[in-house]
Each structure stands twice: as C-alpha cells, then as structure tokens.
Specification:
19% of the residues are buried. This protein folds into 2 domains: 73-218, no CATH class; 230-374, no CATH class. It has helices at residues 5-26, 45-68, 70-95, 100-121, 123-145, 148-157, 159-169, 172-177, 179-206, 208-216, 221-263, 269-280, 286-301, 303-329, 337-380. The chain is mostly helical. Helix 11 (221-263) packs antiparallel against helix 12 (269-280).
C-alpha cells in the first residue's frame, strides 16, 4: 500500500523534466542571463483563475453590448418574422410560373400600395374620429357624474373633474412623452423603426432562399437534408401563422365595423374597428382589450349601446375562438392550448407585445423539432 504513490511522483517529475527540456530546446539560452526555469504550469490556480477571470469579464462585456443593441435585434427579428409571413404569397406566384425575383417585386409593390392606400384613405378618417372621441369625452364625464357610485367616489377623490381637465387641456400626450420635444422624438423613432423594419423585411424576403441555404450548409452533410426539411416546415408554419393572424384580425375588424354602424356608433366606427383589428393580433388579451374599449365608449354614449356591445363581443369571441381561429390556424400551427397560454405569457414578459406575437410560432417550431428529432430518437432506442 505504501509503495503506490512512488510511480506517480516519478511520472510527475518526468513530465516536468520533459516540459523543461522542450522549453529549453525551443528557447535559445543566453549564458549571461542564466538557465531558464521551468515553464509556467497551466494547471496552477493562478493561471486558471487569471484566464477564467478574463473570460468572465469578456462574457460580461459581450452581454452588455447585446443589451445595448437589443432594440436593433428586436427590429431584425420582427423583419424576419414578417418576411416569413409574406413568403407564402411569393411562393404562390412562383408556383404559378413567375420567377422569384418578379414574385418578390410584385409582393413588395402590393405591400407598398396597400400601405399608401391605408394612409391616404383610412388615417384621415381615424384622426377625425379620434378628435370626435376627444370632444365627446367631457360630455361622457358629465353622464358619469349622474351615477351614485361615481358621485361618491368623485366626492372623495375628485376623479371626474381631474379626468375632464386632463382631456380638455389636451396636454396628456405631452405629459406622457415628456413634452413637445419628447413627442417629436417618439414620432421620429416610430417612423424610423417602421422604415427600418420595412427595408429589412424586403431584403430578407428577396434573399430568403439564399439565406436559408447558407444556414443549411452549416450543418453536417449527413444531416443536411433532414435539417432542410425541418427548417422549411418551420418557415411554412411561421408564414401560415402570420397570414392566419391577419385573416382573423380582418374578420374581427370588419365584423366590428358592421356592428358599430348598426348599433349607432357610426361616428367612431372606422377608428374603433381599426383598434379592434390591431389589438386582435395580440394573442390571448388583444381581443378582450379591444372589446373593453368599444364597450366603454358604448356605455358612455348610451347604456343600451354598451349592453349591446357586451353581448356582441361575448358572442363574437366564442365564434372566433372555436370556429374562425381553429379553422384558419389548423394548417399552420399545431400548439396545445396550455402551451399557447404559457408561450404568450413568457413572450410578453420578455419582449412585450413583440414577444407575445412571436411566442406562438416559436412554440410551434420548438414542438415540431422536439417531435421530429428528440421523440423519434427516443422511440428508436
């Protein structure tokens, strides 16, 4: 038992002698400086700690740089998401015999034309109706004061008068954005972000095939075919989800527009229908928020209209949840309800509205890869 450590000691000394001999052979010896010592051991605590600390500092620095460009990365992700959503339309034209370059150009021109028509036709109407909503708000506050509960709360906290002054002065936008300069900067930032996303979307859409093949070539040749198939399925799922979300939101907006004209809110119908369609894109809570906004304005205009709004949106959301949404999304994403809720919550917590929008197709892609790779590998064992 006592003779066992001896060979280890001899082996360690031999290794050190070998390293010293190699070091002495590589480095010329200057007799005036004396013989060189042993090379610094890479296993010493100082060596490991020093370079480990440098690695930690480098990782921290890279993390801070990523946080600085996080807003740019979000714009890039949104642009890629939109490009994947528009790609099915390009593929449709390609299948009809049109070259991809011309198909991309046709889709780009169609998108630009749609945006131009929207700005020219819808934005002025929406701005006028928003102004009408602001002018009508003081009258709604007077109606609220007739309610006994509201009068009691107003007597304690002076809520209605404060809200009326807040709206009538018209400076709520300035207070929210930090003054006139803040409003200008916010508008400029929004316009710049929209322009950047548009340009990146068009670039990604035109070079999508090249980009896909470049990423696929990074995988081993033995697995490249399977990775290509899975990647194409993921992109098809994302594109189908974007197209489906647009269809569902359009249904919500058109149905709300018709209902508002029928119920007597035609003065604000276009603006409120646009708000409902825009919010309906947000998973889980978007449709509810839009319904609450419209219902609140309906009650402010007339309690009967408010009750009609409640009934309509309760019925419509059931139809959307159990008829429209499943039929539209059944061919694009296959995500269980619990996973949808969890993914939307996590995405909203990480990236806000953008995260909520990206959560469901991301969850669908992860589930697809899990089923096709991990589960099948486990079944083969």
């Amino acid at each position: 038992m006592s003779k066992d450590p001896a060979p280890e000691t001899e082996e360690t000394e031999d290794t050190a002698d070998t390293e010293e001999a190699a070091f002495a052979a590589d480095e010329p010896v200057d007799e005036d400086l004396g013989e060189p010592g042993r090379p610094f051991s890479r296993h010493s605590p100082f060596y490991v700690g020093f370079f480990g600390g440098l690695g930690a500092i480098l990782a921290f620095w890279l993390g801070t740089q990523l946080l600085r460009i996080s807003s740019v990365l979000v714009l890039v992700v949104v642009a890629m998401f939109l490009a994947a959503g528009l790609n099915p339309i390009v593929e449709f034209f390609v299948r009809r015999g049109l070259k991809r370059t011309y198909a991309v150009l046709a889709v780009i021109l169609a998108v630009v034309a749609a945006l131009a028509l929207f700005v020219l036709a819808i934005v002025p109407v929406i701005s006028d109706q928003v102004a009408a909503l602001t002018e009508s708000a003081p009258g709604w506050f007077d109606q609220l004061q007739r309610n006994r509960t509201v009068r009691d709360l107003d007597g304690r906290f002076d809520l209605v008068d404060k809200a009326r002054d807040y709206v009538e002065k018209g400076d709520y936008a300035s207070s929210v954005f930090g003054g006139v300069v803040g409003v200008g900067l916010a508008v400029l930032s929004a316009v710049a972000s929209t322009f950047i996303v548009t340009v990146l979307t068009l670039y990604f859409l035109s070079s999508l095939e090249t980009t896909k093949h470049a990423f696929y070539r990074l995988t081993p040749a033995s697995r490249r075919e399977r990775v290509t198939v899975l990647g194409d399925r993921v992109l098809e799922g994302v594109g189908g989800y974007v197209s489906g979300a647009f269809v569902v939101a359009t249904c919500a907006g058109v149905s709300s527009l018709i209902f508002l004209f029928i119920v007597g809110l035609g003065e604000y119908a276009v603006a409120l229908a646009f708000v409902v369609a825009l919010l309906d894109v947000i998973p889980m809570i978007g449709a509810t928020i839009g319904a609450v906004i419209v219902t609140a304005i309906g009650f402010a205009e007339d309690p009967k209209i408010g009750i009609a709004c409640i009934v309509f949106y309760l019925l419509y959301q059931q139809i959307e949840n159990y008829v429209i949404y499943p039929r539209v999304m059944s061919r694009s994403v296959d995500v269980p309800g619990a996973v949808t809720v969890i993914a939307a919550l996590v995405g909203a917590a990480l990236l806000g509205v953008v995260g909520a929008l990206l959560a469901i197709p991301t969850a669908a892609a992860i589930l697809m890869i899990t089923r096709e790779v991990f589960v099948k590998r486990q079944d083969d064992r």
